[in-house]
Amino acid sequence: MTGTDTIVAIATPPGRGGISIVRVSGPAVAHIAVAMLGDVPPHAHAVRRDFKDSNGAILDNGVALFFAAPRSFTGEDVLELHGHGGPVVQDLVVAAALDLGARAARGGEFSERAFLNNKIDLVQAEAVADLINASSAAAAKAAVRSLQGEFSARVNTLADALLQLRMHVEAAIDFADEDLTLLEEGAIAQRIRDWLTASSRLQDLAQQGMLLRDGCTVVIAGRPNAGKSSLMNALSGEDVAIVSATPGTTRDVLRATVTLDGLPVLLLDTAGLRVSEDAIEQEGVRRARKEIERADRVLYVVDSADQLSVAGLSADLLALPQELPVTVVLNKIDLCGKAFVPDHATSAPSLRVSVTSGEGFSALRSHLKESLGYQSSEASAFSARRRHVDALQRAHVHVMAALHALDSTLGVEIIAEELKLGHASLGEITGQVTSEDLLGAIFASFCIGK
Ligand SMILES: Nc1nc2c(ncn2[C@@H]2O[C@H](COP(=O)(O)OP(=O)(O)OP(=O)(O)O)[C@@H](O)[C@H]2O)c(=O)[nH]1
Ligand SMILES: [Mg+2]
């Protein structure tokens, strides 16, 4: 399935740098090496060479690395030219390879070839991109674990167990007379239950991996002057937003990224929610509402020292979209007595803080992590994507259906079919079962040269 053509790309970031790497992969690599370097260097040995164009003109002098198929990242012959990091010289080296029969690689094409040549599975290919794009140290470590195959191994264990179950059940179909003896042993039901337990556990882990990779969006909302921008600045540790005693200060949506124990959180500060005659402020409120709808969690900030805000809290919360995950942050508690707890008639959790004194902040951070579903279990986390979690869930549902069919003695064929569908869902994760569309979508998001 691999391309019969040879691809070339600059593998290092664009611009000037100490070193830049041009990577070539495909059947024409040996030809290109002979033309540009004078020989094909020995496998995986760094050699010093002049890099020449097809006319023999010297373009650069650097280190060349050749990896013979299939012992390379892509599984094809690969040549890496480590030259000087100037944009013009890099382009000249690429142009020379193009001249000698290579074509410019698309984003992710090297990784795609690695996948198609069975050097890595789909989860690992995705982990390459996740590692490059990791927005926190924890996310990077998690991506490395996926890259090393930890997630794939767990998926494969589940898939293998399911395959065993399928074989057992399908044997029951083939030997119809012994139908009952094969299935009524009870062992099958127990094995399916065990499988479901393991599947739930992996779903939890994958969910964590997805959180680590994608992070969460937390929107700070509330009435004007509640202390939203102050909270934004305090949580991000930066002076992102203008704070002033004048209500209606913030108009635009302001963003800052913070890391909570490795969990990347995008914080959004928004305009105070109120009815206003001012067109600019109206637009600010409109933007605030738009972000609120998309939030993974809303921190609804209340000025606890302001009687009107406290009295209006229940109504304010009711005016927010239904089923929105909201935490009420009762701010400015430095201005009220300790015993003061405004009552509000919703089930939203509430926390008391003072941005000025810092009181209640560590509780707020822990609450955020917990409410976003993050357990900072760095040791076992691996990166995962929404599509992995979806596929795991689908597999789980099918196997549940199989168990149901077994319990209600629905017929062995139905059990077999559900197990088969579950197995196929798992296969989508590592790429045993894929469609062209899926592959295209995954690799298109990679950077060029990867
Ligand atoms: N005493 C006290 N004052 C606070 C606290 N938090 C914020 N403030 C003050 O409250 C005022 C409003 O703060 P901002 O952070 O600008 O409020 P905001 O909710 O962003 O206001 P808008 O952008 O106008 O909607 C400022 O004068 C802050 O210094 C607090 O915990 N205690
Ligand atoms: Mg503000």
Descriptive notes:
41% of the residues are buried. The protein is of the alpha/beta class and 450 residues long. The chain is flat, with a radius of gyration of 29 Å. It has 16 helices and 12 strands. It has 3 domains: 6-119, Gyrase A, domain 2, CATH 3.30.1360; 128-211 and 382-432, Four Helix Bundle (Hemerythrin (Met), subunit A), CATH 1.20.120; 216-371, P-loop containing nucleotide triphosphate hydrolases (Rossmann fold). Helix 6 (150-174) runs antiparallel to helix 8, helix 6 runs antiparallel to helix 15 (412-430) and helix 14 (386-407) packs antiparallel against helix 15 (412-430). The protein has helices spanning 29-37, 87-99, 109-116, 122-133, 137-147, 150-174, 179-183, 187-214, 228-236, 279-294, 307-311, 313-318, 361-371, 386-407, 412-430, 436-444, and strands at residues 6-10, 17-25, 47-52, 58-67, 78-85, 102-104, 216-222, 254-260, 263-269, 297-303, 326-331, 350-352. The chain has a 6-stranded mixed sheet, with helices on one face. Strands 8-9-7-10-11-12 form a 6-stranded mixed sheet, with helices on both faces. Bound molecules: guanosine-5'-triphosphate (GTP) and magnesium ion. Guanosine-5'-triphosphate (GTP) is lined by residues 224-230, 243-245, 247-250, 271-272, 331-332, 334-335, 354-356. The site of guanosine-5'-triphosphate (GTP) has 23 residues, from helix 9.
Summarize the model shown.
With 450 residues, the protein is α/β, with parallel strands linked by helices. The chain is 46% helix and 17% strand.
